[in-house]
Amino acid sequence: MQLIFEKSRPGRRALALDPLDVPPVELPAAFRREAPPALPEVGEFDVVRHFTHLSRRNFGLDSHFYPLGSCTMKYNPKVAETVAAHPGFASLHPHLSTTPAYWDACQGALELVHTVEGILAQVGGMEAACLQPMAGAHGELAGTLLIAAYHRDRGNAHKRVVLVPDSAHGTNPASAAMAGFDVVQIPSTPEGLADLDRFREAMNDNVAAVMLTCPNTHGLFEPQVAEIAEMAHAVDALMYYDGANLNAIVGKCRPGDLGFDVMHFNLHKTFATPHGMGGPGSGAIAVGDRLLPYLPGPRVERAGEGFVLREPPKSIGRMAPFFGNFLIAVRAYAFLRHYGGDGLAAVAENAVLNANYILARLRGAYRPAFEGTCMHECVFTAAAQAEKGARALDIAKALLDRGYHAPTVYFPLTVKECVMIEPTETESKETLDAFCDDMLEIARLADTSPEALKAAPGSLPVTRLDEVKAAKDLNCASLP
Amino acid sequence: MSWIPVTEQDRREMLAAIGAPSVEDLFSVIPQSLRMRGWDLPPGMAEAALRRHVAGLAEKNRVSPVSFLGAGYYDHFIPSAVDALASRSEFFTAYTPYQPEAAQGTLQAIYEYQSAVCRLTDMECANASLYDGGTALFEAAVMACRATGRGVVRVHPSVNPVWRRILLTHTANLDVEIADGADPEGAACVIVQNPAFRGDLADFSELAAACHAAGALLVAAFNPVSLGLLKSPGAMGADIAVAEGQGLGLPLGFGGPYLGVLAARKALIRKMPGRIAAATVDTEGRRGFVLTLQAREQHIRREKANSNICSNQALCALRALIYLCLAGPEGLRGVAEACNAKAEYLKARLAARFPVANPGPTFNEFAVRLPIPAERAAAGMLERGFLAGLPLAAVGAGDENELLVAVTETRTRSEMDAFAAALEEVCHAVDL
Question: Which of B311, B347, B402 should be substituted to probe chain A, the one whose Cβ sees the most A Cβ atoms within 10 Å?
């Protein structure tokens, strides 16, 4: 398909402007560019056709089952789009919050921020939440910066070590490093769990924090999480909860009750805001009492009938200029209020039911990486298939030809030829059955004619792409 | 619940296949002592009630005032086609393009976005997006430290003070020193902004040359809409260019989601944070697109990654791309010229009564010194149906009587005339 730049024709235009109702002006030449930027010259219909065609070269959640482990690709409710598009939110200038002179004009938005932060704090079992972080990784950075501020404030600048299990998302060690910490990786047990003995060995006065995902990326709840928290707190190390897998336990148990001091939510996972091809998401954080004074500011607080902004006493500063990805929070609010306090547990219950159903149906053909029931996702190893010549990647590509987005493959790094499937609570039994039927057929092909899978995908606009050439040529922009 | 399709019959059949007596049994691994102790959340709400409730909150906000409020975030016109195309669910419900064959739409769009950013800025490479302008500034500073092996970042007074605060927060625990000024000696980079936060225009070409002579990089923050008219960061010799992309087809949305734009010279591409799309071919020799240089990123390099960024603002980048395609070179120039001409008109009108605080030319925004505190003027103007601008003292960027006034192409001459009259009235009323 042509690039939009290749469709450019001199003199063709889309955007027409109102006639200028003031005298034209001319800036001094030193400040002006010599020629207009080389953007495409196309008509509005060209643009509409081009992007409509591009959209048809994508798998979206509305069109395809997307069992991507660790990504929680659940249905994105349409009502969330409707309420977020309300001009009362969409057209609201963020600097209305900057000066008290304008607070009267944004009371509804401040109330929403305050309410969502209050709900998130309760869902997390925490004291308070903050919407500023703009993605999960940004929440991790905010959380680890809070932990750094806490230790600095207590005169414990020597606490520079963050313990992270080897099954953690890559963002955990990357965020801890960005917050200035040294990362020590703790290997998991053969059963796929956090290794209590290894944690005990690594725990000392230099440890600032432990970052855990629970259930972990093996899809397993950490039954000894409370013991790890106790161990950490004994040396004044804080517990960070990576909320990527919160969908498994929302409404069933809460990170704060498990002993965590700080966490992030992925509103785009647990609370169903659209993933938008990789963003925008929202990585709101929540903290317990230890970290409360350090939260990013300003904070929305209730004052009489209205809402005002105040800076926390020892705030780390600002993670975002305003309240993070506010319109994403509006969408998450719609999700949270739809389910309400009495309905949220059904999310986790059905997510876990669906994952275990897939585990039960596939375990005869693909080897589960770990024993027992899983939580919201099931992890298999395709090592046996790989030995015969069909790798996890080939299974993934074969699924694309059958009309499914592939599961997550090769993550977590702890499992060979890893295939990680997360169905979420919003998929029907019929969808799961059809997917499992196709997975079983692929397993048979892997056994009998693995070369048939190597050619996949064959039904999409392109076949497998040359990633080595891409990295060698580094053609990352079409330049005039 | 309307978004969970599992029936009682399904549940029985699935539990039988699993071999579990109940759904609760699947949670037996969670010790009873760690279970929910109850919470105080309101009950659920069906769609009709939910829409009424959220609309009620939205309607407590006032979006009717005629706005002269900018300070980095502007109410530019958004063509209908931007919303129509970006709301296609094949875009907004898709995930990160980790399976490129099933995401050629996303990947080509990212490649085209990177191309459009390069053409706009006269830079050689761009990433697939960062969160917003402030965090893009932070990433650029860290990138400059990585590229030069130095740890001092100098922030020019032209830079948005809120972004400077974000930079300080994000680097608080790193071996990076944030210093003020424009002296490139020994620095990793000097960060400048054009137009400046207070609206002033500058040509930083000489500073770029001085940076390069001192082994430092020039990081230039820019306003993307202004580049329809203004000299680009690339033309000034900047090494890294960053921007808040909100003006390119994104609603104000009370602060987000916005778009962090980052572009650089090609020699710096391996130091860039975030995703990068690249062109390649498939097994049949057809052009296709993939994510490339992923060894820079957290899912491969973990604690040694260039950045921790994973989720970005891809859908916002798509909106910006669609906007730039609809505008084209002449449209963007027209928008920029209209902003400039209208701002000059209002500046001249106000200058008759209030001193303008900018020493030289401005683009779409300027500061005036009022006879009364700007906070009080702003409150009075709100009562008269105007957002008068940003009192500069609120962000520490001016004295208490200074007001930063922005004008976009959406304002009309009659609105500006009414604004000038109302501002005179408000200042006069308080004067007495």
Answer: B311
